[in-house]
Amino acid sequence: MRAYSIAVYLFLYAPIVLIVLFSFNSGNNASDFQGFSTLWYGKAANNRFVIEAVTHSLIVASSSASLATVFGTMAALAIQRVRGAARLFFDAMTYIAIMVPGIVIGISTLIALVTTFGLVNNILTTIWPGDPATAPQLGMGFGSIIAAHTLFSLALVIVIVRARIAGMDRSLMEASADLYATPWGTFRQVTLPLILPAVVAGFLLSFTFSFDDFVVAFWVAGSKTTLPIYIFASIRRGVTPEINAIGTVVLTVSLILLFSAQFLLRRGEKPKAKAA
Amino acid sequence: MATATQSDQAERRTRWITVLLLAPSAFWYLALLVVPLAIVVVFSFGERAAAGGYQAAFTIANYLNLPARAAAFRNTLILAPVGTIVCLLAAYPLAYYLAIKASPRMRLFLLILVIVPFWTSFLIRTYAWMFILGGRGLPAVIEWLGLGEVRLINTPLSVLIGMVYGYLPLMVFPIFVSLERLDKRLIEAAADLGSNPWRSFLQVTLPLSAPGVITGCMLVFILLMGEYLIPQLLGGGKVFFIGNALVDLFLQSRNWPFGSAVAMGLVVIMLATVTIYLRVTRRYGAGRDVSLL
């Protein structure tokens, strides 16, 4: 069993080791190692398109994860007070948002936005007082990617935070109310600290999903190239070790974040098993 | 009387707060899920405009035309379940080792090691396999060893390897969680009662880890059904999934109505399979805490 586990780890890490190794290749053919160099890191760092794609991805991931975390936590808190049709609606929507494949979400969002934008842009052109060619027009961009990513992340946060609330001792909140805490005071001093690990986990998962997503962004990105879209395009163009360098940097940064999060969690109060 | 109105007021306030708390999510679900999916349904009954895109009509021709994409449906419906099962078979022993055999000191570290690959870009991880399975990777090594010529890239096998690689951590994690929660004294009790290790595994450990197995299989299956990138990069247009058919229909032939019908086909198959799956597993009592909600 031990030997088997080692074999699985080898399987998991062989590709990653290759990526890191070839990011230091001095040649420009991705499959021939010609010598050690950090050339490609410099190239990636000076590539305007890479910088732009990373910036776009960071903007999209942080906005959609923040929106999803705030709205999702709000919904998770309120949802157990609701019964009947509203409850059914939320449960069904959360289920469907997670179940429907990303590619279908991407396509349907694209179709819906193209249709709506077409109508709205027509109206805008008609009512615009000046030259019709200068009328403001709606189009794909940050707004559409953030909105589409928030949909999936929202469902994710609702599921995670609700699981945490379900495992929570409700008498604590009742006690707080009995002791004359205002609802807001109870939330801030009792509920929030209790659900915080789930909220943080929800944010991190949403951020990771959004930063790594290709299939949804591909449809609704318009001209705003995100990092996965850039990488996909480079793979199709035929690859240089530049992609390996970018991959290695992404891996290193997420490792640093992962371990510092672990460190912070351990330094704080003894964490209970994560609700996710 | 006065107290009655007061509690009335408080109740009304609570109701307002509840509505306000739910409003943003409800808006998001309506505007970005219900309306778009409804539009896809409408489009799937329409006709392709001469220049591509959609033209209003009411016809079921698109659905009747679905067999034109039978290959994509067949590939997806074979490879997604097979990938899920291979993933399960590969993940279970590792999860078992981590939860039961590994020393507690090493456990967290080993678990993090399983998650780390998940934090590398999915595209880059898949691209690494293009490299390994491509002509100058493993096939070259096999040939050099004198084991004959093989072609790996752009075959169903390479897609399968990519799928197992991509989603293995997602399978290991829930199984690990349910095995770790398991009371180890039960296994000892079985052994004390004269059960051999294999039998205690089959009769005690395996049934108790069922919730993790069910969750893991469902997560992986859902993602595999909608897969686009892995067949695209490792199947090279030869091993075609429904996801690839969709990209082709919407971007190349610009047949939006037919594409919408294919998308609806995928969604219906998924909802049906997963709902049946949850029903069946719940009947065995194992799936009680499994539902996604």
TrEMBL record, chain A:
<feature type="transmembrane region" description="Helical">
    <location>
        <begin position="245"/>
        <end position="265"/>
    </location>
</feature>
<feature type="transmembrane region" description="Helical">
    <location>
        <begin position="140"/>
        <end position="161"/>
    </location>
</feature>
<dbReference type="Pfam" id="PF00528">
    <property type="entry name" value="BPD_transp_1"/>
</dbReference>
<feature type="domain" description="ABC transmembrane type-1">
    <location>
        <begin position="54"/>
        <end position="261"/>
    </location>
</feature>
<feature type="transmembrane region" description="Helical">
    <location>
        <begin position="7"/>
        <end position="24"/>
    </location>
</feature>
<keyword id="KW-0812">Transmembrane</keyword>
<keyword id="KW-1003">Cell membrane</keyword>
<feature type="transmembrane region" description="Helical">
    <location>
        <begin position="190"/>
        <end position="209"/>
    </location>
</feature>
<keyword id="KW-1133">Transmembrane helix</keyword>
<feature type="transmembrane region" description="Helical">
    <location>
        <begin position="215"/>
        <end position="233"/>
    </location>
</feature>
<protein>
    <submittedName>
        <fullName>ABC transporter permease</fullName>
    </submittedName>
</protein>
<feature type="transmembrane region" description="Helical">
    <location>
        <begin position="92"/>
        <end position="120"/>
    </location>
</feature>
<comment type="similarity">
    <text>Belongs to the binding-protein-dependent transport system permease family. CysTW subfamily.</text>
</comment>
<dbReference type="InterPro" id="IPR035906">
    <property type="entry name" value="MetI-like_sf"/>
</dbReference>
<dbReference type="GO" id="GO:0055085">
    <property type="term" value="P:transmembrane transport"/>
</dbReference>
<dbReference type="InterPro" id="IPR051789">
    <property type="entry name" value="Bact_Polyamine_Transport"/>
</dbReference>
<dbReference type="GO" id="GO:0005886">
    <property type="term" value="C:plasma membrane"/>
</dbReference>
<feature type="transmembrane region" description="Helical">
    <location>
        <begin position="58"/>
        <end position="80"/>
    </location>
</feature>
<keyword id="KW-0472">Membrane</keyword>
<keyword id="KW-0813">Transport</keyword>
<dbReference type="InterPro" id="IPR000515">
    <property type="entry name" value="MetI-like"/>
</dbReference>
From TrEMBL, chain B:
<feature type="transmembrane region" description="Helical">
    <location>
        <begin position="20"/>
        <end position="45"/>
    </location>
</feature>
<feature type="transmembrane region" description="Helical">
    <location>
        <begin position="256"/>
        <end position="278"/>
    </location>
</feature>
<feature type="domain" description="ABC transmembrane type-1">
    <location>
        <begin position="73"/>
        <end position="279"/>
    </location>
</feature>
<comment type="similarity">
    <text>Belongs to the binding-protein-dependent transport system permease family. CysTW subfamily.</text>
</comment>
<feature type="transmembrane region" description="Helical">
    <location>
        <begin position="200"/>
        <end position="224"/>
    </location>
</feature>
<dbReference type="InterPro" id="IPR000515">
    <property type="entry name" value="MetI-like"/>
</dbReference>
<keyword id="KW-0813">Transport</keyword>
<dbReference type="Pfam" id="PF00528">
    <property type="entry name" value="BPD_transp_1"/>
</dbReference>
<keyword id="KW-1003">Cell membrane</keyword>
<feature type="transmembrane region" description="Helical">
    <location>
        <begin position="152"/>
        <end position="179"/>
    </location>
</feature>
<dbReference type="GO" id="GO:0005886">
    <property type="term" value="C:plasma membrane"/>
</dbReference>
<dbReference type="InterPro" id="IPR035906">
    <property type="entry name" value="MetI-like_sf"/>
</dbReference>
<feature type="transmembrane region" description="Helical">
    <location>
        <begin position="77"/>
        <end position="99"/>
    </location>
</feature>
<keyword id="KW-0472">Membrane</keyword>
<dbReference type="GO" id="GO:0055085">
    <property type="term" value="P:transmembrane transport"/>
</dbReference>
<feature type="transmembrane region" description="Helical">
    <location>
        <begin position="108"/>
        <end position="132"/>
    </location>
</feature>
<keyword id="KW-0812">Transmembrane</keyword>
<keyword id="KW-1133">Transmembrane helix</keyword>
<protein>
    <submittedName>
        <fullName>ABC transporter permease</fullName>
    </submittedName>
</protein>
